[in-house]
From TrEMBL:
Residue ranges of every copy of the GAF domain listed in the record: 22-149
Membrane-spanning parts: none
Protein name listed in UniProt: GAF domain-containing protein
Source organism superkingdom: Bacteria
Organism of derivation: Maribacter cobaltidurans
Length: 155
């Protein structure tokens, strides 16, 4: 993937020798005008996504999002499918993709993308807005490219 969809501020962070994942996630959240986000890395030799950074997740939900099995919730399904999972309004979703506790985040427009590079899964990144929102194809592509760049740093 080309890096033309990665904002300069995020590309600069990714080019640093030591990456502050919290700051990188917060810049990504801000770039998409979101309020909430998570960054999970795949625990080696398991099917568990481990929380690396988060913003806007209520404290009481941290235990539930700290370790997510592949296939569970938006992040787990994005990892399982190796494709982005989007929801216009997580609060009214009845598809079963979002876990019941996810509604407690109070977010609505949500996007979870797998962190993949060369067909290998490294984790997931998720962003969300406090209002109903359909992410554009360009926004989805941009988040996927940010994810690809993250993978190149953690591989």
């Amino acid at each position: 993937m080309s890096t033309n969809k990665i904002p300069k501020s995020i590309a600069t962070r990714l080019n640093q020798d030591t990456i502050n994942w919290q700051t990188l996630l917060e810049e990504t959240i801000n770039y998409f005008n979101c309020s909430t986000g998570t960054l999970h890395f795949l625990k080696p030799d398991t099917s568990i996504l481990e929380l690396k950074a988060q913003k806007g997740i209520p404290d009481f939900l941290i235990p539930k999002v700290s370790a997510i099995p592949i296939g569970k919730g938006m992040a787990g399904i994005a990892a399982e499918r190796m494709k982005p999972v989007e929801m216009c309004n997580l609060q009214t979703d009845e598809s079963g993709v979002a876990r019941p506790a996810a509604k407690e985040t109070k977010v609505e427009g949500s996007l979870a993308a797998p962190l993949t590079h060369n067909g290998k899964l490294f984790g997931t990144i998720g962003i969300a807005k406090p209002v109903p929102y359909d992410f554009t194809e360009e926004e989805i592509l941009s988040l996927m490219q940010i994810g690809d760049a993250i993978c190149q740093k953690i591989s």
